[in-house]
Every structure is written in C-alpha cells, then in structure tokens.
C-alpha cells in the first residue's frame, strides 16, 4: 500500500498533461536537508547547516537512474559470460550471454555494449523469448542516453512478452515495466513510478514469492519512499527486502544494495548507530572483491554515515577511496557527489584554498556544470569563497559570471551584489588616493551631493507623475478592451452552446434510429428469416429426394449466412453487450469482431468506470468503432493497439497501428462523413483529438470528458 502522501500524488496525476516532478537528486538532497535540519534544531549548529545547503543547492539538477546490478565478483562474472558465447552451442543461451555483457558495459564502454547487443540480436531471430530479451536490453542501452527510445523498446518488449507464458517471461515483464516507469518519471512524476512498481512490476514476481527479484523491487520502492521523506514506510519495505534476500539470496548484489539503501534511510533520520550496523553487513559482502565497481557505492554510503556522525576528518579518506573507483570505472555522477562532499567538509574546516581547488576541478571536469543551474551555483560559491579569502578581483570575476546566468527575478539583487564588490575593489585600490583628499574638497563634494540629491528627488517625483498618468490611461484602455473581449466571448459561448444543442439532438436522434432499426432487423426481419428457414427445412425433408435435398441444403446455408450477417448489422447498429455488460465488454467484443488472421488487435483497458452515463458510453463506443473501421479498411496494418483509461471525469483513448499511414493534413481536408461524425462526437464530449501519422503507422490520442452530458 502507498503512503497517504504518495497516494495523493498518484490521484493527482493527469493522464492528459504530464506533471514534471522533482528530479531524483532534488528529492534526494531535499530529504537529506530535512534530516540534517532535525539535528540542527537540537544542536544549534547553524554554520554546519549553511554548508549542507551549499551541497543541496549544487546538486539540484541531477537525474534519477536505476542501480545497475552485476555480481560483486565482476571478473569471474564477465569471464564466465565470454566463455559461454564461445563454447555454448545453444543460440538462445549465447544470445542471453551477449545481452548480459552488453548490459555490463553500457555505462563504461558504449561501443562494446552496442557490439554485444547486435551479436545477441542476430542469434535471437527464431526465438520469441530471445527477441523479447533483445528489446528489453536495447531499452537498457538507451536508458541513460535517450529516454524516449528506451521507453519505446521497453513497450515493444512488453508487447512481445504478453504472448509468452512462464516465470522467466514474468520476471522480464517486471523489469521492463520498471524500466519504462523510470523513463517516464521526469514527465509523470514519482507517483507514476510508484504506481508502475505496485500495480505492474511487483505483482509479476510476487506470485513466485521467495526470489531475489522481488527483494530488489521492494528495495527500489523503499528508495523512492525515502526520497519522498516517507522514512517509516521506506523502512518497512527495506526491511521486507532485507529479510527476503538474507534468506534466499544472501551473497548477491541485490543484498549488497539493500543494505546500502537501509543505511541511507537511517542516515537521513540521524540514526547513525543503526545505519552503521547495515553498513558493516554491506562491507562484509564487498570486502572480498576489491576490484568490483560497486566499491564506489559502498564508500559513498560510508561517507554519508561518517558525515551523519559528524566525523568529517574520517570521511575525507573514504571520499578519496571512492574517487579512485569512480575514476577507474567512469562513474562520473558518483565522482561529482564525492567531490561536493569533499568541498563541503573542507569549507567547514576553513581550508578555503583546498575547497576552492575542489570547485575548480569540478568546473574543469564539466560533468556537473552542463546544467545551467549547477553552473550558476558553482560561480556563486567561488565568488563567495574568493571574497572570504580576500581575493576581491577574482570574486568580482565569478560574480559577473554568476550574474549572466541568473534569473531576471533576481537581477536587482545581483546588481546590488556586483556594486558592493566593485565598491570594495575600488576602495582597496584607491585607499591612498582617497586619504590624500583634503577637508575643503570633501566639503564641496558634500554640497554637490546635497544638490544632486535634491535634483534626483525632483526628477523622481516628475517621473512618478508621468508614470501614474500613463498607468491610468493604459488601465482605462485595458478595461475597454476587456469589455470588448468579454462581449465577444459571450457571443462565442452562445454560438458554441447552440452548436452543442444541435449536435446533441442529431446524435440522440441518430442513436434512437439506430436502436429502432437494430431492433426491427434483429427481432423482426431476423426472426422472420429464421422462421422461413425452419419451414423450408421441414418442407424439404418431406417433399424432396436426397439429390435435390443436397442442393437445397446449400441454398439453406446461404440463407443461414444471410441471417448471421443481418444480426451482425443489427449488433453494429446497437451492440447488445454495451447495454447488458457495459463499455469495457462491448469494446472487447468490438476488437474481437475486427480481428483477422492477418491482423492482431491488442485491447488494454485501464480502470474503466462502469458507472459512466449510458449516453457517454455509446458515444465512446461509436468513436472507437469509427477509428477501428478506418484502420482495418485503409491502413493495411498487421497490429493495432487500443488503450482506454479513465481518471475521474477524464477518459483517454489511444489507438496505434503499424500500417502505411497518411499525409498529416489529409484528415483535415477530407470530406469523409466518418471523420465528420468522429469530430462531432469528440466535440460533443468536450474533448480533443490529436492525430500523428507517417509511413511507419498512425497514432490517434483522444481525451474526453465523461461529465460533458448528463
């Protein structure tokens, strides 16, 4: 179950508009600051709090990424995989080994990673599960490079895995859903990622119970809850993960990172002694493998623990050890985090020259300063450091760089800071010249200043009066324009309301006529034809001999087929399942109706409310029916994906096909009655429709309001 805060966030997600959530490190260090602030309240360590604020501000723009899990004994792991691809004769096993090698090198050697991925793909062509694995690991490859491409490959993997049954496929589904959730986190926010974990990933592996994948997912959920300051709930999931892994996977990377995640959670709560116990357990796991890249994460956890215990002097050697691993394995993000903690400690120790050198090294590396906000924060820190050290000219240089990047909302404050620094600089350079000025000159300057002040006050008063007069004129003009706009808006609303009433009358009349015709066809003409068939069958059995009966049976089969077609027409006019069982069942039957041997339709309903007004359900059904009919008739597609979801009063329809597509403006120019009716129904439900098409297929997204009509 999700905590109250995250559940509120989940309920606030709007399917139509992406809500940009805080980035991983914004929340990460926000939580860290909350925890540190608690200790400051008790300890009154204001200077230390300022230094932590520095670290928090600089790291605001880092991004979330999933932990890469490889065995702690990395050399033995990679050697075994390379042996497998040379000695194994099974293509599926060799392909999987190539995929694991690609995943291992994806963050350290992109060329090698891509090469292994392509080799695995070549061996996967005739195996559906191997093809699905290729799509998943292609998504892994693009996860830190291009999230849109990664999301596309994860979705393709899920589509292929939906056709495969078994434990291995289920585990891969869980990983694919989680990867997809990570790609969408910056658009949809943490609630979406929590929803993916709870509703998609965890249920896929929970049915197999005692396995390390379930423990890892519990641990990942614990991380997210920690970053959202849900410490108690995060502790519960971390505990579940640790208990499960200690019993079933005690010497795995999943176990190692679960210990580190629990260490972080306890450090943020200023529970250093408890955190140390889990850190010791992580150390026992990593100690036999000094060449493992995971050592960098361990030393970062130890740094965090020592800072929490205020043992900053001991933290510095841990930082240096961690840096040696990050340099060796190209872990640039973690490297910068170590540098920032080092800078923070050195500044607290008043080792300003060393602290300054750390900041300058970070600027030289350029990994962190790609983001303009990080760069601005570094410039400001360097300006403050140099001013504190008495290097006023250098402080001025960095302050000027900072001012160029600063937001216009803070322009006045930046200008004031610049003036202050410039005044300090001029004062220090011209102290001797100022000291030589005599009293007479000072008196004259004082008189001039008084006259200047008087003239300035007079000028300011004049400007104020002019501005006031202009403001009154502009305000009057604005009021007149607003009245004109309001009048035009009212006329437009009246016209829209009238058009809506006309559309409503047309659609309601159309549905009533459809219902009447369907009833007449099904109950009247259909019944009559069925009766005719029965009577003809009885007559033939009494009056016709066997040779003639066979010919007559063919005629009866044609009549039977005609009755079936008649009932299909009646069902299309008014589907009986919609009235009896609701919208979701009716849409499922509609997809089955249009499915062919050469056409697969994948229907994905997500939380469709059965209490939608019947009039709205009928219009939604007609919209989907029209789009599917057009796709089947014109697109020449092999696969169609139909996804329907609902959040409160918003109903979303997404239809994608892999057909031949059409020109983007052709649907606007066409005179087709179907497109015209489709637009009418969308407008009737106060919705909007977006169509995207090229030679790889067509995607249609429709957003409707289920409360548009009563």
UniProtKB/TrEMBL annotation:
MF term (GO), any: protein dimerization activity
Domain Histidine kinase: residue ranges: 516-708
Pfam families in UniProt: HATPase_c (PF02518), HisKA_3 (PF07730)
TPR repeats: 215-248
Cytoplasm recorded as keyword: no
Alphabetical keyword list: Coiled coil, Kinase, Membrane, TPR repeat, Transferase, Transmembrane, Transmembrane helix, Two-component regulatory system
UniProt xrefs under InterPro entries: HATPase_C_sf, HATPase_dom, His_kinase_dom, Sensor_HK_TwoCompSys, Sig_transdc_His_kin_sub3_dim/P, TPR-like_helical_dom_sf, TPR_rpt
Domain of life of the organism encoding this protein: Bacteria
Gene Ontology cellular-component annotations: membrane
Coiled-coil features, chain-numbered ranges: 411-454, 478-508
TM ranges: 23-40, 454-475
Name the record gives this protein: Histidine kinase-, DNA gyrase B-, and HSP90-like ATPase
Species this chain originates from: Chryseobacterium arachidis
């Amino acid at each position: 179950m999700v905590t109250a805060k995250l559940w509120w966030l989940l309920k606030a997600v709007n399917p139509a508009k992406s809500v940009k959530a805080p980035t991983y490190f914004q929340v990460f260090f926000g939580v860290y600051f909350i925890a540190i602030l608690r200790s400051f309240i008790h300890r009154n360590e204001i200077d230390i709090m300022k230094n932590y604020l520095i670290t928090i501000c600089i790291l605001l723009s880092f991004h979330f990424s999933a932990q890469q899990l490889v065995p702690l004994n990395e050399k033995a792991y990679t050697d075994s995989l390379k042996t497998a691809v040379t000695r194994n004769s099974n293509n599926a096993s060799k392909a999987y080994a190539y995929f694991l090698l690609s995943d291992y090198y994806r963050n350290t050697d992109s060329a090698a990673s891509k090469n292994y991925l392509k080799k695995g793909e070549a061996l996967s062509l005739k195996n559906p599960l191997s093809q699905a694995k290729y799509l998943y690991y292609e998504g892994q490859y693009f996860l830190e490079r291009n999230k849109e491409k990664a999301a596309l490959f994860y979705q393709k993997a899920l589509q292929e895995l939906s056709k495969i049954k078994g434990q291995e496929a289920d585990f891969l589904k869980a990983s694919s859903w989680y990867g997809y959730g990570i790609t969408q986190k910056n658009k949809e926010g943490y609630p979406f990622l929590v929803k993916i974990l709870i509703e998609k990933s965890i249920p896929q592996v929970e049915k197999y119970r005692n396995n390390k994948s379930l423990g890892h997912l519990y641990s990942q959920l614990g991380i997210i809850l920690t970053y959202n300051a849900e410490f108690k709930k995060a502790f519960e999931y971390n505990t579940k993960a640790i208990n499960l892994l200690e019993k079933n996977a005690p010497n795995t990377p999943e176990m190692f990172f679960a210990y580190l995640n629990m260490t972080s959670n306890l450090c943020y709560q200023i529970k250093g002694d408890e955190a140390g116990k889990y850190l010791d357990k992580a150390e026992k796991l990593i100690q036999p493998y000094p060449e493992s890249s995971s050592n960098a994460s361990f030393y970062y956890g130890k740094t965090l623990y020592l800072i929490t215990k205020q043992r900053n002097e001991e933290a510095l050697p841990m930082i240096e050890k961690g840096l040696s691993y990050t340099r060796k394995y190209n872990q640039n993000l973690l490297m910068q985090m170590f540098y920032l903690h080092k800078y923070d400690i050195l500044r607290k120790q008043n080792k300003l020259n060393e602290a300054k050198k750390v900041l300058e090294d970070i600027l030289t590396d350029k990994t962190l300063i790609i983001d303009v906000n990080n760069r601005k924060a570094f410039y400001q820190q360097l300006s403050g450091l140099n001013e504190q050290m008495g290097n006023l000219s250098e402080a001025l240089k960095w302050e000027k760089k900072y001012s160029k990047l600063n937001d216009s909302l803070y322009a006045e404050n930046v200008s004031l800071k610049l003036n202050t620094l410039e005044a300090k600089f001029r004062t220090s350079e011209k102290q001797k010249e100022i000291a030589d000025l005599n009293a007479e000159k000072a008196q004259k300057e004082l008189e001039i200043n008084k006259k200047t002040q008087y003239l300035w006050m007079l000028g300011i008063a004049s400007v104020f009066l002019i501005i006031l007069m202009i403001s009154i004129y502009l305000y009057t003009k604005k009021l007149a324009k607003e009245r004109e706009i309001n009048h035009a808006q009212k006329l437009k609303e009246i016209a829209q309301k009238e058009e809506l009433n006309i559309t409503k009358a047309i659609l309601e009349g159309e549905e009533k006529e459809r219902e009447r015709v369907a009833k007449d066809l099904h109950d009247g003409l259909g019944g009559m034809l069925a009766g005719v068939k029965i009577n003809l069958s009885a007559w033939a059995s009494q009056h016709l001999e066997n040779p003639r009966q066979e010919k007559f049976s063919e005629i009866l089969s044609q009549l039977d087929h005609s009755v079936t077609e008649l009932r299909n027409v009646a069902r299309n006019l008014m589907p009986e399942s919609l009235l009896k069982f609701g919208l979701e069942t009716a849409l499922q039957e509609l997809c089955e109706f249009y499915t062919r041997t050469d056409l697969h339709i994948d229907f994905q309903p997500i939380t469709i409310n059965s209490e939608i007004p019947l009039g709205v359900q009928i219009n939604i059904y007609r919209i989907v029916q029209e789009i599917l009919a057009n796709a089947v008739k014109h697109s020449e597609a092999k696969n169609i994906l139909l996804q329907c979801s609902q959040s409160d009063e918003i109903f979303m329809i997404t239809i994608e096909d892999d057909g031949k597509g059409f020109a983007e403006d052709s649907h606007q120019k066409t005179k087709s009655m179907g497109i015209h009716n489709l637009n009418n129904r969308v407008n009737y439900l106060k919705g909007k429709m977006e169509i995207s098409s090229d030679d790889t297929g067509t995607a249609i997204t429709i957003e409707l309001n289920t409360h548009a009509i009563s």
